[in-house]
Amino acid sequence: MAVLAESGSNPDVDLLYDINGLAKDAPHWFDRVMEYVGEYGILLGMVLLILWCWWAGRRRGGEDAASSVAALVWAPLAAALAVLVNVPIRGFVERPRPFRTHEGLEVLVSGKTDYSFVSDHATITMAMAAGLFVVNRKFGLFGIALALLEGFCRVYMGVHYPTDVIGGFALGTAVALLLSPLAMALLTPVMKAVEGSSKGAWIVRARGAERGASVIPGARQEAAAERDLAA
């Protein structure tokens, strides 16, 4: 049921040709870079960003350490769930890849035989970015920037329409945010139990980070200094 426009003059197709046309004018080496970045690199970058956020958070500790780690665990789980939700969506829409219905595209990745709407890559990256934003806005904004770059790469590579990417962004964000309260209700007690164990506490907080420690670096030292001055 290919209900989305696949031919004729429309902004979706026009933007597809505009963005993909950049690949024709770019050097061969740049296209290869975009291919690997769009297919694998940004996905790996999102995973590393989540790990970086986890590493920084566990060193700070704090009363909300368990809930923060639970939210970070939810980010990749949300991405996986969003991809599962996308399976029936793709089967219902049945939109062919753009290079199957439009001539003259510079296709950088071969072997794509499944349907186009919505983009799995866009869905995964935005779901992880949205989950990351809930934990830490700075890391989350950087993740959103990576997700936007992923969407651009998918159109640049000639394997998705712009609306495929927009749909993926919407799906990933919806799954990550709408199901976040339920996920947190289930994952936070698990992380608190891990934090209280002798062998798994390092997952939630570093050895030097106490429970209830301030999440603001240096706040404890400032409070001690104020007490000394008052004395």
Automatic annotation (TrEMBL):
Keywords: Cell membrane, Hydrolase, Membrane, Transmembrane, Transmembrane helix. Residues 75-180 form the Phosphatidic acid phosphatase type 2/haloperoxidase domain. GO terms for molecular function: hydrolase activity. It is a multi-pass membrane protein. Pfam families: PAP2 (PF01569). GO terms for cellular component: plasma membrane. InterPro entries: PAP2/HPO (IPR000326), PAP2/HPO_sf (IPR036938). It is found in: Cell membrane. SMART domains: acidPPc (SM00014). It comes from the Bacteria. The chain crosses the membrane at residues 40-57, 69-89, 115-134, 141-159, 165-187. This is Phosphatidic acid phosphatase type 2/haloperoxidase domain-containing protein. It comes from Streptomyces canus. The lineage of its organism: Bacteria, Bacillati, Actinomycetota, Actinomycetes, Kitasatosporales.
